[in-house]
């Protein structure tokens, strides 16, 4: 369980990045996530351009657990190296998220900003 509260994501000035941007907001002290690990996270996702929230585990009142292998590339690349207890911001361009506009996903073509709290890891 985490004693953290839902993060507020500040609007990011300037053009959307074309590569993944990883920023540790808080460095954890627990076990480290490795590629392919099974993780337990809380997260908030917003659209880079509008700042509109499109998803949040906080709003559902519970963290979510899944293997990193099942996630968008930006999470596969951005979560390993994180330690339990940490909070990390990922700015994920479309090619590492849901693909180009017209890809069939409602977030296709969008640069996404996530703040992720790593609560647990195994594997």
From TrEMBL:
Gene3D superfamilies registered for this protein in UniProt: 3.10.50.40
A GO molecular-function descriptor: peptidyl-prolyl cis-trans isomerase activity
Pfam family, one: FKBP_C
Catalytic activity line of the entry: [protein]-peptidylproline (omega=180) = [protein]-peptidylproline (omega=0)
Keyword set, alphabetical order: Isomerase, Rotamase
Keyword Isomerase attributed: yes
PPIase FKBP-type domain boundaries: 36-122
InterPro entries with a match to the protein in the record: PPIase_dom_sf (IPR046357), PPIase_FKBP_dom (IPR001179)
EC number in record: 5.2.1.8
Keyword Nucleotide-binding: no
Family, similarity comment: Belongs to the FKBP-type PPIase family.
Protein name, as recorded: Peptidyl-prolyl cis-trans isomerase
Native source organism of the sequence: Schumannella soli
